[in-house]
TrEMBL record, chain A:
Keyword terms: Pyrimidine biosynthesis, Transferase
GO MF annotations, alphabetized: amino acid binding; aspartate carbamoyltransferase activity
GO CC aspect terms: cytosol
Protein name: aspartate carbamoyltransferase
From TrEMBL, chain B:
GO biological process, one term: purine nucleobase catabolic process
Entry keyword annotation includes Hydrolase: yes
Name this polypeptide is given: Unannotated protein
SUPFAM superfamilies: Composite domain of metallo-dependent hydrolases, Metallo-dependent hydrolases
Cofactor: Zn(2+)
Keywords: Hydrolase, Metal-binding, Pyrimidine biosynthesis
GO terms of molecular function: allantoinase activity; dihydroorotase activity; metal ion binding
Organism: freshwater metagenome
Amino acid sequence: MKHLVSVSDLSREAAIAILDTSLEMSEVNDRDIKKLPTLRGKTVVNLFFEDSTRTRISFEVAAKRLSADVINFAAKGSSVSKGESLKDTAQTLEAIGADAVVIRHHASGAAHMLANSGWVKGSVINAGDGTHEHPTQALLDAFTLRSAIHADARGKGLDGVAVAIVGDIAHSRVARSNLVLLKKLGAKVYLVGPPTLLPSALISQADGYSYSLDDAIATFKLDAVMMLRVQLERMTAGFFPSEREYARIWGLNADRLALLGSNTFVMHPGPMNRGLEIDAAAADSKNSLVLKQVANGVSVRMAVLYHLLSGGENE
Amino acid sequence: MSEFTLVNATLADGSVANIGVTDGVIKFIGDQKIGEQIDAKGLVALPGFVDLHTHLREPGFEQSETVLSGSRAAALGGFTAVHAMANTMPVADTAGVVEQIKSLGDEAGLVQVQPIGAVTVGLGGERLAELGAMANSRAKVTIFSDDGKCVSDPLLMRRALAYVKSFDGVIAQHAQEPRLTENSQMHEGNVSAELGLAGWPSVAEESIIARDVLLAEATGSRLHICHLSTAGSVEIIRWAKQRGIKVTAEVTPHHLLLTDELARTYNPVYKVNPPLRTDADVKALREALVDGTIDIVATDHAPHPVESKECEWSAAAFGMLGLETAASVAQLVLIDSGASNWQRFSEVMSVNPAAISRLESQGQKLEVGNVANIAVINPRTTRVISGGGASKSSNQPFEGIELPGTVIHTIYRGTFSVRDSKLAK
C-alpha cells in the first residue's frame, strides 16, 4: 500500500491489519517513553489547506512518536484565490524530499489528484478532502468501536454491529468514509437525518435509513450512534428551518440517550456543537466514546504511517 | 480560382459521382471531369460542417485559443463555418466587437466565422444588449446567447425572444437555473454523492427549458436550446415540437459519448457545463438525435489553458475541446451504430445548423450552382485520439479513445482549407 486516499482502497484484511497495528501503537502510547525509532530519517509533511488544529496535531504527534521529522505546511492559497497552485505546492514538497504528505484540502478529490498526478513520489495520506473522505477518522472510529465491543479485539472486525450515522450525511466526509469502512468490517450501517441532507445514492449503500432519530432508535437495535457535527454554513442554506428544530428532531438528548439503553455507545468526530446535535448528557455519559476517539486518533495515525512508510507486512 | 474534380465521391444518399468545382461553385455532379482530378473513391463528400457553438476565446483569452487557431481546428474537423460564442473579453455585446470577430475570421480565411451576440450587456443578465445593432452590423448576427450563463430572469428572456422577431433572430439559451446549481461541479446522482462533489441536478436544466418553450410559444419567437444533456430535456423538446413551438435543440459530441462515471478519476478534463450525465441520458440523447427531436450536433468547443485544468476539480474551469472530433462522434452515433444514415448526419452537422443561423452559403446540399463548402471524410479509418490537435489548448476529453472516420479534405468556398488531412495554410 502506497497511499491512503480512500477507505475503498483498503481490503477488509488490510483494514483489520491497520487496526491491529493501532492496538500495538496504543500500547506504546501508554508507556512513559512514548517513542519508537521506526521512521527515523523519514520526513512527513502535514499539508493543510484548511484549518484543522485537531487533525493536524494528531498527525504531528503520530509522526513524532515514530521518530519522523515533521514539517507543518499551512497553505492558505489555492488556484481559486490566485495563491500557489496545488501542483506548485506539491512540487515544492517533492523538492524538499517528503516521504509522506498528509493533505487536508477543501476540494473533494485533492488527495486523489496528488496521489495520481506524479507530482510527488512519496506517500499521500488523505486527512480530509472536501465533502469526500476522511479515511483516518473512519479507521479511528472503527478502532474505538471495536475496542469498546471486544475485550480482545485483535484480528476482529465489526460483524453484526449496528451503527447509526446521524446528521448531515450529504456534506460529511466522515460519514462517507465510515459508511464504506464499517460495512467492509461487517457492521450494519444506518443513515439518519433530514431528507435534505440524506442523498439517495448513499442511502442505497446503507442497511437502512430514517428521517427520524426516534424511529431509528426504536427500529434498528443500535450498538452505537455516531453524531455528526452540524456545520455552520448548513444552518443558513435552508437545509433545515432552524437550529432549534434540528436539535428537537435529530439531536441526541437525555431522553433519547435513555431510549438507547445502557449498551449503546455514543460517538462524535468532534468538535461538538453541544446543545445542537448532542447534549451534555449524551456527550459526557459513561457510554460516550468521544474522548477515546481523540486518544485513539494518534494510535491509528501511527499505524497508518507505519504501514505506508516502513515497508510493513502489507507491502 | 482553382478548378478541380473530386472523382468517384460517395454522396450522402449513397450514390457515387464526380463533383466538379469552378470559381468556388459546384459546377457539376456527374461523370464529367474538369481541372485537377482528385481521387475520392471510398470517401464521403458532404456539405461542409457548421458548428453553432464554438468558443474561439478571442478577444481576451488568446492564451486558450484565437480565431486563427480555432479556425484551423475547425477546418481540420471538416467545418466550413463556426459560430463564435459571445463570452469573450470584451463580451461580444456590441456591433464593434462582433464586427472585429468577423474580421478576424475573414483574415484567417479557413472557415466562415459567424459571431453570436450576447443577449444581455456583459452577459450580466440585467438588460438587453444592442441586439438590433449587432443584427444590422457587417457581422449580420442572427443568434444571440449568454452562453456560459443562463438568461434566468423570465421577464428578460421574454423580452429578448420578442425583440429578435424583428430581424428573424433566435435566442440560444444555456438552460441552467442558477439557484439550483450554486457551486455545482458535476451531474447530481450516485457518482456525485460518492465523490462528494456538489451536484448539478437535471431539473435545473429541464425547468428552464420548460419555461422557455412556453415563452417561445407565447411570443411566437424562435428559441434554440444549447447543449441538451438530460433525458427529461428531450421529453420537453419533443412535447414542444408536437405543439408547433419554434424550438430547436443541440447536443454536444461529449454528451453523446461520455458519462459522469469519468468524474471518478477526479481529472478535471471531464469537468464541463452542463455536466456529463448518465448512460440513460446518453441513450435518450442519441435516440433524439436520430428521430429529429434534437436538430443538430454542436461542439461547445471550449479551450482552456493547462493551469485551468491541472488542479483540483472544484478549482478547474468548465469545458472541453470538440472541433476535431465532432464528426467522428457523430459518425459513431449515427452511422456505425446502424441507427441512421449519412443524410441524417448531413442534416445534423450542416443543413440544420446553417438553417437555424440563416447562413445562406452554408449547409446547402451538394448541388450544381451552390457554393462549394464541402467536407470529404474517410469513414473506414479509425484513430486513437491524443492531444489537442490544432487548438492552442489540450483539454481533450476523448484522449485515448478510438473513434471512427477521418476528415480528408475540407473545401471552403471552392478552396482547400484542409487537403489530405493537412492544413492548406
